Amino acid sequence: MVKSLSLILLLTIIFAISCNQNKNTPLETETQKPIADKKATHLEKHDDIRIDNYFWLNDKENPEVIDYLERENDYNDRMTSHTQDFQKRLFEEMKGRIKEEDASVPYKLNGYWYITRYEKGKDYPIYSRKKETLDAAEEILFDCNIEAEGHSYFKMTGLSVSPDNTLLAFGVDTVSRRKYTIRIKNLLTGDIYPETIETTSGGSTWAADSKTLFYTKKDQETLRSNKIFRHTLGTVASEDIEVFNEEDDTFNTFVYKTKSKKYIVIGSGSTLTSEYRILRADNPTGEFKIFQPRIRGLEYGIAHYENDFYVLTNADGAKNFKLVKVSEKTTFKENWEDLIPHRDDVLLEDIDIFKDYLVISERSNGLNKINIKRWDGSADYYLPFDNETYTAFVSTNPDFDTKILRYSYNALTTPNSVIDFNMETQEREVKKEQEVLGGVFNKDNYTSERVWATSEDGVMIPISLVYRKGMLKNSNNPVLQYAYGAYGSTIDPYFSTVRLSLLDRGFVYAIAHVRGGEYLGRPWYEDGKLFKKKNTFTDFIDCSKFLIAQGYTSNKHLYAMGGSAGGLLMGAIVNMAPELYNGVVAAVPFVDVVTTMLDDSIPLTTGEYDEWGNPNEKEYYEYMKSYSPYDNVVAQKYPNMLVTTGLHDSQVQYWEPAKWVAKLRELKLDTNLLLLHTNMDAGHGGASGRFEALKEVAEEYAFLLDLEGIKN
Known about the structure:
Blueprint: H1 2-23, H2 26-29, E1 41-45, E2 48-52, H3 63-79, H4 84-96, E3 102-103, E4 107-109, E5 112-118, E6 126-131, E7 139-143, H5 144-147, E8 155-161, E9 167-173, E10 180-186, E11 197-206, E12 212-218, E13 225-232, E14 241-245, E15 252-257, E16 263-269, E17 274-280, E18 289-292, E19 300-305, E20 308-313, E21 322-327, E22 337-340, E23 346-353, E24 357-364, E25 367-374, E26 380-382, E27 390-394, E28 404-411, E29 414-422, E30 428-433, E31 446-454, E32 460-468, E33 479-482, H6 500-503, E34 508-512, H7 522-526, H8 534-549, E35 558-563, H9 565-576, E36 583-587, H10 593-598, H11 609-612, H12 618-627, E37 640-646, H13 655-667, E38 674-679, H14 692-707
Parallel strand pairs: 33-34, 33-35, 35-36, 36-37, 37-38
Antiparallel strand pairs: 1-2, 3-5, 4-5, 5-6, 6-7, 8-9, 9-10, 10-11, 11-12, 12-13, 13-14, 15-16, 16-17, 17-18, 19-20, 20-21, 21-22, 23-24, 24-25, 25-26, 27-28, 28-29, 29-30, 31-32, 32-34
Helix pairs in contact: 4-14, 8-9
């Protein structure tokens, strides 16, 4: 009798397993996770040997590599199959908040009003213009929905209209490698000229004659923007004249025209150093003149007005930058005259020049400020903002002779507004408020705040928070903590319609303003780079500990997200403090720091030395190795993780996250989810269509919500 019961029990178990196999459930497929082959490569530097078992994954021409990526994609699909319907609902929900038939606020340039608009159900923009008045007939410049047909990825950039309004230069990328081909369209006939200029940055600048075009070429291998060429309309690109070659491989170069339209400017810069050359726009075949020769550590940017240049610079120890003035005839540094002096507590971010006004964008205590001054000194005031978690910035203002300043304002709880401000009367007109469709959004249902965590070295780290009103601090709230933390790039507290899909399901969203950004000024950035890079990671961890200690959440409900350099942050924190997080999303993560920074053939590497250090120097090598996520994967428990990448990524090569995931699979001591999704058609920015990109967000959100047990 006992044997009979045992047999029945055994058959029941077999039947249950069979049913699970038919359903393809996560429990079953977890045992079939893809394993990458280990092929040891010895990497030696400074008498130190690193053994990289997954170095072979850096060859996407190898069928074994593609096979591995596809197996990972298949595994991801199987492990998330139970969320597929949820992902679709999230996608439709997020899409449903977007006004599909929408248009930008028109701006006027050289007698035409320019508009970017979208049509219902279409992914890509339509660029158009109207002559003199908005009541004039619409002239379609490009319908990118038509141009994108037949391409899995499509990006148009750098639209540049000639001074006589008859020609349009533009750049197109259909691979997502940011290698743009420049073409020229005749706006009178609609014809696109046969000349093609390949491997460019996409942008270009017309000289005053409407026949000469300046553009930036990229190195075929490294994709560094390294040369400026001059193209004459009607000639083939092979005849173009090289006017500048940036030979220092830590610098990139670019070209543009001053707002005054008087000068063509060639800029050349690295992380820490700037240099410019100028040429009268009405003399395109002339010789460019150096504005101020490069000096290591000297950063500056230039704007032209009447007979002078206005220079934003960190010269003379001005860490937070100052504004100086110099005659266009004698532009060298010794002639610079202070106009707005350096301030220890105010970061000078940018300036905009108008005929009668100077507009200064500042940041004080992390908050955006816009200062307006009349050139004649009769007015000097700030635009009033009264929120502690807002974002305000000067928008598109190409018209030089106007009293209208266009700026944008939004907050964590407030959709974006485009505002025209009369600098003379100080009257403002809201030209457009972002509509949140769906009929359920009410900004009064949400609240935001800024709190301060104490770092391990005693520094106060600001955190911007947003959540639904009525949230109780009971440690059971799911919190998604986001940060970037590199290059001095500040993540301002901005409004997001897609984020509502988390907030409305009980999530708290937190932006940790860690060192490495410039939220609290230039010193904030310098305290999170080079030999101080680890401050970025420990700041994030200390913010997490603060949110837990204050009862916002617990480690069972805390999630982290970051992309690119923010993906490096994610890789570091899961090595350093994996116990704090239930789940982590790392998008296109830069995780193999040492190997990448030692390979100067990889796009952008040499230009990054001032950010991360040069590992050809032993001290930098050792410091990088001490935090590089890939080099520091160990046999320990890791959180649930979703890692995403793009096969054609030119900034963070796909093999970095692929290798990282392979090594994590080998060493981690848990059964938590580890998923890798490679977009086989896209690069660093993900999918190109406005709605296709939402599918990637839906995937990330479904991953987080599923971990939290939220199914709809």
